[in-house]
Structures are given as C-alpha cells and as structure tokens.
Specification:
Helix content is 43%, strand content 17%. It has 1280 residues and is an alpha/beta fold. InterPro entries: Helicase_ATP-bd (IPR014001), Helicase_C-like (IPR001650), P-loop_NTPase (IPR027417), SNF2-like_sf (IPR038718), SNF2/RAD54-like_C (IPR049730), SNF2_N (IPR000330).
Length: 1280
C-alpha cells in the first residue's frame, strides 16, 4: 500500500465520510460548503476519489469510505500533512464507533479499549511489509502487536532468502513489552528462511528438534508431543507463532489426516477474528480453490527465485488432502518438475516444500520429519483419505463391505466433457455436463480447454487427452493436428447440442489458363487457410482440410508460367502425387482426376416450421444434395463426400432467379432468408396454393411439420337450449374434404397461442381473430361444451362473424341482445362524446338484465354518466346509491345540477330511515354511505330496487366483510359499480365486484380460483379471464379521451435522514427484524406492524418517540417546498395517511401564519363541506387532507400542486388523491410531489408501485405481466 498525498479538499471529504460512515451528496455539500466549492466540483472530486478506490458509491448519491480510504486518511494524519478529524462530533456510545476508535488509535497512537477484533481485518488486508515502517512506530501497543503478527506472517509467506529478518529495523521501535514477541518472530524467520547451514535456536525448540532429527516414535505422536511441550512452556492460550503452526499442521496431515482435520478446525474456532490473515489461510487450506490446485502447476513452472515458498507450502498441503492416488494429485505426474526437485534448497522452508512434493509424486523424502513418515509407511502407504474423513485407513476393508451392502438406488451425479464445434471460424468450445437422476445431460458449463489438464484431468478419457495435447494454451485458430482427433471424437456436437459427424475431405484444385500461363484456384476459396467447415445437414458437416503438401505449393501454383510438354508432364506427376487431392484442369495437356459439369439445380422456396416460427429460404436444389442458398455460396459444389464429381454454379443467373422468387412472395423484405411469425407467417401460408399454381416450387424441410392456415371463417357453431343452459357444438373446416371437431381443437390449443399441432406432420396456424374467438369459447364452455345463461351474453360478441346455427330459443335471445337502446337526445346533451358512449353502453346492459362496472380513469365523470342512466330508469322504481361518507354532499350537488327531477333522500332523522326505505317510490334516489348499511340491513333487503349504484366500489373488494355480504343479498334489476380502481391487489377483489354486479358469472369463489387463479402469473389464464369479464367492464383513460387536459408532472422528491434519524432508523429496523425472525405463527402481523413503525419514523421520529426533541428531515423539506410553492402563487393539496403527522405539520404552518383548510375522518359533515367550499371560493393556499377521508370524491381543481407526505402501499390510492386536482375543469399543469426518505422502507414501497399498477393493467388494459405480493415480499422490505 503506497502512501497517498491528500489535497485539503480530499482530506475534508474523507474525514467527513470517516465520521458519518455513509453520507449523501447533498449532505456533504451542506457540511463542506464553507470549505470547498459546491455543485459539480464536489461530484467531480468524489468521482476522482472513487476511481482511486478511496470511496465507493452505495445506492443513489450515497457515498462511503473504503478501507483504502481509511488507510490513506491514517497515513496523511500520521505524516503530519493533515490535521486530526473533529472527533468531538462522533457519538460516543454505539457499537458502530469501533471503527472510529481503530482509526483514532492508528492516527494518535493512544491506547484505548480496542482489542484486536474483526474490524481490523479489512484494514490489515491492504497492508504489506513496506507499510510497517510507516505505521508501526508511534502506534499503540495493541496495534503494534497486531501489525507485527500480520507483517511477520507475510514475510514467511513470501519466504525470500536473506541474512536478516526484514522487520528487524522497525521491531526495535515497538513498545518494550513487545520485545519478546518480536524476538520470537525473528527467530522463526531465521530458522525457516535464514542460512540453511547456520545454527539458530528457534522459538519452538521441540519443533526444531523434530524437523532436524529422526526418531523411532510415530511422527503423529512426536508432533503432538511438540505441541504439548509448547503449550506447557508458553503462555496459556498463546499461539505457537504463525507460520510454524501451518508447518506443523502440514506434517501432521501427512502422518494422521484425521487428527490434523480435528486440530485445524479447533484452531479455526479458537482464532475467532483475532488473527484475520491466519484464519483466512486455515480456511483456504480446506477450500476447493486449493483442492482443485488452481494455478499451482503454472506456479511450479516459474523460476525458483520467483516462487513464494510459504504460499507454495499451503498449496501443496491443500492438494495433499486428496491423497496420492487421487486424480488431482495424479496430474502432477504429467508435468516436468525436475527443476524444483533437483535444485539445492535456499532455506529450510524450500527444503520442506521439496520433500512434500516428493511424497505427492510417490518418491522418498530426503529430510526429517517426512523422511521418517515414508520409512514408517513403506512404499505402499495410502494417503488417499480426505482430511475430514474420520475412518482410519486400517478399516478400509470394512468401508468396502459396508458400501457393498448399501442400496445403489441413489446414484452420484456423473460428469462428462463434450466438445461443441461452431462452423464460423471454425471455433471449438468445451463444456462440462452433469447427468440428472433421469439420465439426461445438462446444457453444461463452459470451461477453458487450457485448464483441462490441470483442473479437470479426472474427466479426460483417451479421446480427450488425444485432442487436448494438440490444443494451444490460448485458443485461436485450431491447429491442423487437432482435426484428426476431433473428427473421431465420440462426444462432438454442434452449437445446438446435436450429435455431430465430421466428414473429412480435400478441396478441389482447379488449373485454369491465364494470359501469362496458368493459375491454381481452390474451391472453396476459404480452404486456402487450411481448414473450412461446410454444413451438409444438422448432424453432418464436411471438413475441407487442405493437404499440407498442397498448402506448401500454393504460392508457386498461383502463377504458373507457360510450360513445355515435359513441364506439363512434371506438373501432372506432382499433383497426382498429393494424396486424396481432387483436381481439375481446363488446360490442354493436363488431365485431372475430377469431373466438373454445369449445375442443374431448380430454384425453389424452402419452408421450415419449428418452435412457432416459419423459416423461409430461397434455395436451389439438385437431387439428394442439400439445398443451397440461391445466388450465394461457393460456385463449385461436390456431388458426394468421397465422390470426385463436381458441379459448376452460375451465381449471376441464380441472383436473377432469387429476385423473381422474392417478388412473388408477400413478405416485402430484402434478402433471401426470413424468419416469420404471427401475421407474416399466416399471410405466406395463405397464398401457398396460389404460388404453386403460378409455378413456384415450394419445398418443405424434411424435418418440418406442414403448416396450414385457418381464419375465423372456418369456424361454425350450433347452439341449442337445454333447460337453464345452452349446448354448443362446433367445427373447423380445414378444407373441403377435412372437417375438425371443435372439441379436438380446444383440447390441443394452448390459451393465447396461435398454433395447434394436429399430429407429427401437420400444424395449424390460426388467425388472431380466430385465436380470440377460440380463447373466449375455451373460457366459457365446460368440459361438455355447455354454457350457462350468464355467460351467453359474452358469447354473442364473437358470433357476429361466425357461421352459427341454433334453435328458436337461441335465435330469439340473440335477436333481443342485438337490439340497441335508444337514449333520449336531451339527456345526452351535456355529455362529452366518450360519456355518451358510456351511457349507451350502460343502458344496453341494463336493458338486457346485466350489471356493469364503469372503471373510467379518475376525473372522467363516472358520477355524471351514472346519473343519466338513473334518469332514464327512474320510472321503473326507486334507486339505491351507496357512497363513501366523504362524497355524499358531492352526489347531492351533482344530482341538483344534472338530474334535478330526481328526488334525493338523505336521512336526517334515524328513526325514519327504515320507513322511508320501505316506502321509496319511482323517481327517488336513496343516498346512503357505506357506514349506514349495517343498521339498515333488514330494511334494504325487504324490497327490490330498480337500480343499485356503488360509488368507489373498491369498498367491497373484500368479499368476506359484512358490508359486502349484505350488498350481495340485495335484490336489484340493474347493478352498477363505479370505480377507477376495480382491482388493486389481487384477483379476489375482482370476484367480489362481479358477485355484486353479475352474480354467478364467475361461479363460486372456489370455482373462480380453480379456473382463473393462475391469471396473476400466467398470461394465458389472464387472457381467458379477460375474455369473460370484458363485456361488463368499460375503462377509458384520461390521456385517451381528454386531450385538452393539462399535463401532470410526478416527482419523487428524495430526502436524506439526519445522522441522528439514521441511527434511530437502523436501530429500530434491526429490532423489528429480530422480532419478525423470532415470531411464531404471526409473521404477517409482526411484519406489518414493524413496517408501520419504520414508515412513521421516516415521517418524523416524534410519531414513534414523543420525547424526540430534534428536527424531522421530512417535515423540514415539506415546509421548504410549501414555502417555495406559496411564494410562487401555487395552491397545494397536502395528503398523508397519518393524521398525527398532519397535526405536526399544522403546528409549523400556524407558526408561519399561513392560511389553510383541513380535513380528516374526524370532521363533521358540515365542517367538511365548509372546508371544501372555502378552498374553492377563497384564495386559501393550503388544504391538508387525510388520505382516507379525502382521497376520493372531491373536486379541487383550484389547486395545481399536490404533496404526498408519505407513500401508501397502493399507488392507485395516491393517484386518486392526486386526481382531486388533475381532472375535468383543471386549466393549469399539475405537479405531484412524493416525499420519500432515501435508503428506507419508503423507497422499497415506491418500487412496489409498478407491480401494483401492473395487476390492474393486466386485466383492464390487455397486459398480462402481473405479480402478487406475499409475506416474504413484505419481509424483504425490512432487510437492509
């Protein structure tokens, strides 16, 4: 780690981030505005520090310090170039300040209460030995000891020979109490890396004696004795220094792998996080990285002076875990390692590595203690046990018997190497495939062929080795010698994974006359590169391999001078002598061995239907030869792989033929190959008979199914009445000779798909209209092809263009439903065109006895359209209108304005309610709010209503509520639901809505779930559901029908929490996570409760902690936005779901002496109406509204700005609230602000809004990508 020179502005940024841990760009601007320029200069400086690796970007505009940045700050302070950060600003109690204390110790050298714990690990990982000279002097004793251990272990891992311990000069500057520690490290290094012949007394005499002297006692016992002696003589719990422990463990692994495994794990547990580098090395010891010997063999090829012997010892020990007979160790025998084994060792560590390598190769060790191990075990000793296998080697026969008795039903997954050849290049790819329990092979993972002989040697068989030996280390063009083993390889596939056969042949050599003499041409010309692939079929490719003898002579053959007769004879003999070379001559006096004739191919159109796509190619065909691209490719074509007969193509003439064919096809695209889908494919299949009649040759690929087209004209139905249902029989006319039963097509058809496979050789392509009709039929008919009366009406929508026969009952009903309802012109006069269409649609459904859902976007006049229908039906009897309490007054005003002849009954005296309901007459509208339904249940059920209207019908989205159950029981001739959001969260809400408007249409809830429960995730089921409900739902969006409505701009305004708020938020979040994880059976309750706490804390900590005395970042930002808006003459609606948050905001507004109106659920009807009228008619700049009380039913177009203080789960609720201002009558652009705290649950809630909107759009707008939200999704909001 080199020292950093920090400018003042870089120091200011790093020290601020060191104090804050994480900070936003905006926060840094506020804190540093007095010290450095703001704006873009700050961002440029942060990006510069990011490129240097000193800071990192976490999320959107959130910055934090890296370990490199911490070290740079430390070095700058320690050098005196920069002052100490202002530690007084750091809170003193929380655990997160440990990192600050570490930096304080390193910077000041003061002795604190900081042990050598895990927070040091990342920082130490950045340091090398050169940093010791800068950091050790002046640090506290604890840090000196920690760094001394770290740097000493590094010197032994590098193991560079020398006369003196590399840390000798800086160790003398350490605290006196560390003298014995540094002397121990120096002695350890001197013994392992010092002069091999020098005498030295190491820190661990017992280990030194064991390594330098033999002994009769078993090696494992001697090693354990040496460890026991150390522990008896040393300080309790103290480590036998660093690298010596790894050396000891490596020897013990060779002597007794089971005890070595247990000791390694014990050490890892006792280490904890106290010695991070050593703990990491012990972990790598048993890891797959070393076990697979990644890079080890490349390392052993390095010059000896470049080897790091300490790291090599670890790699060899890790490899030795697999045993001498393992495939991993067997790879060693394939490499020449004599330069390592025969070299004179520079020091003891190198000698120890050489001996361990000899053992792995099955040779005898030359030094103690491994020399003793070989002598004790003999040449037949086995070390093939994994260190984690606790079974002694002596009991291997028992393992064998036990294994023989086990069930062989569970088969270990097998692996194999496969080779994929790509024609382009050509390029060779290697993959490792696994075999599933079903015996099938996976697609495989790609591996570098250069690593096969080292990392994956166990998978290579003889064919693989023959190929691998020919491949270069860096894959490029395949060498010539690779083609022979590749062509005979049993596991060669094409890019699609199909078994591939390579047929090897030579190119055709042509001798042609030129003005200067003669010239030689190769066909194909690409064969001049040595190899060329020509696909003949999916599983058969021709490899055109140019003989080396010809390649050597090609430069000379490109320009042949005029030759006399004897020269021609010599050239003849030379060419004939090249083995397996076909050649042809146009020069008199030279007779080649190949024939060349004009190509007699026929131009044609080849069709191939595969995987829902129609591949179209213009080709030329001759006999059994594979079709060739028309006007493209090689001019010379070989008759057969081993045949010396060739064809000469006229590519210019073929291009003219291709243009004629192209003009005859209804494709309209350039080129000669196309991949058609949908309508394009259908258009071509429809004209195939005409093309054949015009003389176009049509050829289907041998592996392709024949494709035939069908449109809706081919469908015919017969419908007959059967009691309370209709029987539907149908047929599809494929041609005049073949009629298909509708049952067969519906069984074979996948909903939403346009192709149906009749058999292996025939597929049908259905037009979009026919797919739509069949999809609807599939949704409406039961297994016996019957349809109930409720679903008969949607069925009529598809019968207008279908040949339909039926009995008198069906025809009578169909004629009745086709009648259009006349709407009095005077009633439609005040309406816009789209509203007139809506009224006609509602009136028609009402006339035929069906209910409806008017789902127009907010602000499009749903109330007005409903009133016009009530006026048309007033003579039929009284109407019941149920609305939210907040819009009762609005309905009264709308009736008075647009339907004055209707008598609105709003109950004033509770005692009169039941009597008024029972006595209600034609022309009266009984106006109730949802809260009154329970007390009037019996009276409402006692009579029948001519019309029933539910405003904001999402109020009954939960079918299990008493409110919904009561409304389902009421009797009414026409049921109308008004809702801009008929579905908000899940499909059960849709079932509840339709149970009210058209009872029985979607069946029982259980039947609905069985038929359409997958619609949320399956587009096909969504299409079926949409086909059933679409006749009864009408939805128009504002952007579709109100082109004059001004723009609405939506802005997510991000807010950074203050450090104090952030600290409180994280502490609360962790507490909530802990509660959720320990909850039994009540996970959802805990999750929702915890999320509410976090959301309220984001709004203001005072909502969670009444004693909170500091500020609220969100309320501060809200006041700043309101100040700006009011100052610029805007009028603002402020929404929140938390009434107490509105109260906090009111207090601030009153301090500012701003005028405002207020509305929440606790306001009386009079107070509510007074506030609305005051805002409409007086220049009041602010209206504070609770989301539940005023998010719907209000018309407040006097405002042009909307402020949402906190995000609600469902974006539709927020959209409805915003459209109190953005609706008909608004003349100014509307701006909607959503205040969202960064890196909090609020950001994640906003991210969920898109999923919520997708559910509604999937049903109402034809889209089908929707997702639900479950407990786990909610739980994820709490994590991080």
């Amino acid at each position: 780690m080199s020292a950093f020179t920090l400018s003042f502005d870089c120091y200011a940024l790093l020290s601020e981030l060191q104090l804050q841990r994480t900070a936003s760009t905006r926060y840094l601007q506020e804190q540093l505005q007095a010290q450095m320029p703001l704006g873009r200069a700050l961002i440029d400086k942060l990006e510069q520090l990011q490129q240097q690796g000193l800071v990192r970007l976490r999320g959107e505009q959130q910055w934090s310090l890296t370990a490199e940045g911490t070290l740079a700050l430390i070095l700058a302070v320690r050098s005196g170039a920069c002052p100490m950060p202002n530690w007084a600003r750091v809170p003193s109690v929380t655990g997160q300040e440990m990192a600050q204390a570490l930096v304080r110790e390193l910077c000041l050298g003061e002795a604190g209460q900081v042990p050598t714990y895990y927070l040091a690990a990342d920082l130490l990982g950045l340091l090398d030995v050169t940093d010791a000279h800068r950091l050790l002097p002046g640090s506290s004793p604890q840090w000196q000891q920690l760094m001394l251990m770290h740097f000493s272990l590094q010197t032994l891992l590098d193991a560079e020979p020398g006369a003196q311990w590399p840390l000798a000069s800086v160790a003398s500057a350490c605290a006196p109490e560390l003298k014995s520690v540094s002397e121990g490290f120096a002695a350890e290094w001197q013994w392992l890396c010092g002069d091999l012949a020098g005498e030295v007394t190491t820190h661990w005499p017992a280990l030194q004696q064991l390594a330098e002297q033999g002994g009769e006692q078993p090696l494992a016992e001697r090693l354990l004795g040496a460890l026991g002696q150390w522990q008896a003589e040393g300080v309790k719990g103290q480590w036998p220094l660093m690298f010596s422990a790894l050396l000891w463990l490596g020897w013990l692994q060779q002597a007794d792998p089971v005890i070595a495994s247990e000791q390694r794990k014990k050490w890892q547990r006792s280490l904890g996080n106290q010695f991070p580098l050593l703990a990491d090395l012990l972990g790598q010891w048993a890891g797959d990285r070393h076990g697979q010997a990644v890079g080890l063999f490349d390392t052993l090829q390095l010059p000896l002076e470049e080897l790091h012997w300490g790291y090599l010892w670890l790699d060899l020990c890790a490899l030795a875990r697999h045993g001498e007979q393992s495939p991993q160790v067997a790879i060693l025998h394939k490499w020449d390692l004599s330069h390592v084994l025969e070299a004179q060792p520079h020091h003891r560590l190198m000698a120890f590595c050489q001996d361990l390598l000899r053992l792995l190769l099955g040779q005898g060790a030359q030094r103690a203690p491994l020399q003793q191990l070989r002598a004790a075990n003999g040449d037949d000793a086995s070390a093939d046990q994994d260190e984690d296998d606790k079974t002694p080697a002596s009991a291997s026969w028992l393992n064998w018997l036990q294994g023989l008795g086990r069930s062989s039903g569970v088969r270990k997954a097998q692996e194999r190497l496969v080779w994929l050849l790509h024609a382009e290049g050509p390029e060779l790819e290697c993959k490792i495939q696994k075999q599933s329990t079903k015996g099938e092979w996976t697609a495989g993972r790609r591996v570098d062929p250069a690593l096969l002989s080292t990392q994956y040697a166990a998978l290579l068989d003889e064919e693989d080795w023959a190929l691998v030996r020919t491949l270069p280390r860096v894959m490029g063009q395949l060498p010539r010698e690779a083609w022979a083993p590749l062509a005979t390889h049993p596991r060669l596939f094409n890019a699609k994974g199909q078994k591939l056969q390579l047929a090897v042949s030579a190119p055709l050599l042509q001798i042609v006359a030129t003005e200067q003499g003669m010239s030689a041409l190769l066909s194909p010309s690409a064969a001049a590169r040595g190899a060329h692939i020509l696909p003949l079929a999916q599983d058969l490719w021709q490899l055109i391999l140019t003989p080396q003898a010809l390649l050597d002579r090609l430069p000379a053959l490109e320009s042949i001078p005029l030759l006399p007769a004897e020269g021609l004879s010599e050239l003849q003999r030379t060419l004939d002598a090249i083995p397996d070379l076909p050649w042809h001559s146009q020069v008199a006096g030279l007779q080649g061995n190949a024939e060349l004739a004009p190509w007699p191919g026929i131009p044609s159109v080849q069709l191939d239907w595969q995987d829902g796509q129609l591949a179209v190619k213009l080709v030329t065909r001759q006999g059994e030869l594979p079709p060739l691209p028309l006007g493209k490719g090689e001019a010379i074509v070989r008759q057969g792989i081993k045949d010396y007969h060739y064809w000469q193509r006229d590519l210019v003439a073929e291009k003219g033929q291709a243009q004629q064919l192209r003009n005859s096809l209804p494709i309209g695209l350039p080129g000669s190959e196309w991949l058609l889908q949908g309508e394009q494919a259908l258009a071509l299949v429809n004209v195939l008979p005409e093309l054949v009649d015009a003389g176009v040759v049509i050829h289907w690929h041998q592996d392709s199914a024949r494709l035939k087209s069908l449109d809706e004209a081919a469908l015919s139905l017969r419908i007959e009445r059967r009691q309370d249902w209709f029987q539907v029989e149908g047929a599809l006319a494929l041609d005049e000779h073949q009629i298909l039963d509708l049952r067969l097509i519906l069984r074979q058809m996948t909903p939403g798909q346009r192709t149906v496979q009749l058999d292996e050789k025939t597929s049908l392509m259905l037009s979009d209209k026919l797919v739509e009709r069949l999809t609807m039929l599939g949704a409406m008919l039961d297994e016996e092809q019957r349809i109930n009366n409720k679903l008969a009406y949607p069925l009529t929508r598809l019968l207008s263009v279908i040949t339909t026969e039926g009995d008198d009952a069906w025809h009578s009903l169909q004629q009745e439903w086709q009648q259009e309802v006349e709407c009095p012109a005077e009633l439609l006069t005040p309406l816009r065109d789209y509203q007139k269409d809506g009224v006609r649609w509602l009136a028609t459904l009402a006339h035929h006895g069906f209910g409806a859902c008017l789902a127009d976007d907010m602000g499009l006049g749903k109330t007005l359209q409903a009133l016009i229908v009530l006026r048309m039906r007033q003579h039929l009897g009284p109407a019941l209108v149920v609305v939210p309490k907040s819009v009762v007054t609005n309905w009264q005003e709308e009736v008075a304005r647009f339907a004055p002849e209707l008598e609105v009954v709003v109950f004033e005296n509770p005692s009169e309610r039941e009597g008024v309901i029972r006595d209600a007459r034609a022309g009266q509208v009984i106006l109730l709010n949802y809260g009154m339904l329970g007390s009037l249940a019996e009276a409402l059920k006692s009579r029948r209503w001519s019309s029933m209207v539910l405003d904001e019908a999402q109020q009954i989205k939960n079918a299990g509520t008493q409110r919904a159950k009561l409304l389902f029981q009421l009797e009414g001739d026409f049921r109308l639901a008004l809702s801009g959001t008929p579905i908000e969260n899940h499909l059960g809400e849709l079932w509840s809505l339709f149970t009210f408007i058209n009872p029985g249409l979607l069946g029982s809830l259980g039947e609905f779930k069985r038929r359409f429960g997958k619609a949320v995730k399956d587009p096909q089921h969504m299409a079926l559901l949409r086909a059933v409900i679409s006749p009864f739902i009408l939805r128009r969006l504002k952007q579709q029908v109100l082109t004059e409505l001004p723009d609405k701009t939506e802005i997510i305004h991000h807010i950074s929490l203050s450090p104090e708020e952030r600290q409180l938020y994280e502490a609360t979040r962790r507490e909530v996570v802990q509660q959720v994880q320990s909850a039994d059976g009540r996970a959802l309750m805990h999750v929702l409760s915890g999320l509410t706490r976090l959301r309220r804390l984001c709004c203001s900590p005072e909502l969670v902690m009444p004693e909170w005395s500091q500020t609220s970042s969100k309320l501060d930002e809200a006041m700043a936005l309101l100040d700006e808006a009011i100052g610029n003459g805007h009028r603002v609606l402020v929404f929140s779901q938390f009434v107490d948050l509105l109260s906090l905001l009111r207090a601030r507004i009153e301090q500012k002496k701003w005028d405002y109106c207020y509305l929440d659920g606790g306001c009386s009807a009079k107070s509510r109406q007074d506030s609305i009228l005051r805002f409409r008619h007086e220049p009041v700049p602010l209206f504070l509204i609770s989301l539940k009380a005023g998010g719907t039913g209000l018309n407040l177009t006097q405002a042009d700005t909307v402020l949402h203080l906190d995000p609600w789960w469902n974006p539709a609720v927020e959209d409805q609230a915003s459209d109190r201002a953005h609706r008909m009558g608004q003349t100014q652009p509307v701006t909607v602000y959503r205040l969202v705290c960064e890196q909090t649950v609020e950001e994640k809630i906003v991210a969920l809004h898109d999923e919520k909107r997708a559910l509604a759009d999937g049903l109402l707008s034809g889209q089908s990508e929707v997702r639900g939200l479950d407990v786990e999704s909610l739980r994820a909001l709490l994590m991080g």
